[in-house]
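User: I'm putting together notes for a lab meeting next week and I want to include a structural view of one of the chains we've been expressing. I don't have a solved structure, so I'd like a prediction I can at least talk through. The sequence is below, exactly as it appears in our construct file.
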Amino acid sequence: MPRQNMQPNRPENNPQRRLPRKQPQDIKNSDKEKNKRRNTLITVISIFVVISLVIGIGYYLIYVMPFQRTIIKVDSESIKINYLLKRALNMSSDDPIGQGLFETLVNEIIVSQEAPKYGINVTEADIDTTLRDAAKGESESITDAEYDAWYRQLLNNTQYSVKQLRDLVKGSIEQQRMVQYFADNTPTVAEQGYLWVIVVKTYEEALAAKERIDNGELFANIAKEISLDSTTNGNGGEIGWVPFKAMESRFEYMLTGLEIGKCSDPVINETGDASNPESMNYAVFMISEKETAREVTEDYLSTLKTRAYADWLNSQWETREIKYYSIHGGNFDDVTSAWLNYQLNRMKAGTTSDTEDTTGTSTQ
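Assistant: Thanks for the context. Below is the predicted structure for the 364-residue chain, given as structure tokens.
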């Protein structure tokens, strides 16, 4: 029996089943079509990427970057606009973005940097205790669930991040302990003068009183005659022993250098309203005795303890480089103040998204 041909029935062996061959022109047109579709897709993707970049850059420039700019700098440590706005949002002042807020933030940085030098170190446990006490209020105790609910509500109301809130509490504890440190270390002896005063309504009256004293009239007689200070005029203007540092700075420097028995030049006794002369009065002083190290009475010691921390803080300001910046990087100006108040009002109205939840000082 003859062998049958077992080769598969391939198209080339079957003329009737052969596939049509593509002509060179057809192949060329097909490649062009593919390239066209590919180029169109690339163009669409490129346009989409460019639009996305433009939108993203625009959003960053408008809603992110301005809030990341430095507004306050103390030496090498800085505070960002975002954090300043959050602090302003939580102030009850009629002018939250004013000199008071800026000085408070600078003071916090100074205290934070200096506290460890005075042996003051606030632990995480200290912060937890302070927060829990605040949550507890007048109650004797608080459950964990109640504390957690209070804590979440506090973060929501203040818009602080967890770190910002805890750093704020830490700073408050540091300040309290610094105040106590200087109070505890306030000397109980101080330079003092035995002080006399005449208070009158106008500068001209004060100057006339000084001229009478300089011409030989007794200070006490003139005080009884014209002084408006009801607490001393009956005693001839006698105040008694006063530590110079317990007085306002403008009086302290003047009285420290005043010679015994001499009448001072007229000084404004009450600040009042500079635009309303009726709200102001003037005084002249005399010192009859001085002692460089006299025991301080309890009343004045309390004043000295309060002044000790303030004086230390003022001295720190004098040794540091402190700068306030504008939103454009220059010195703080009215344009920046107006922009900050505008942003604050938006935050109060709930129309500003929190673009950076961890912004604060540069160390946060």
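A couple of points you could mention at the meeting. Strands lie at 70-74, 77-80, 189-200, 238-243, 267-270, 281-295, 322-324. Residues 1-6, 57-64, 352-364 have pLDDT under 50 and may be disordered.

User: Perfect, that's what I needed.
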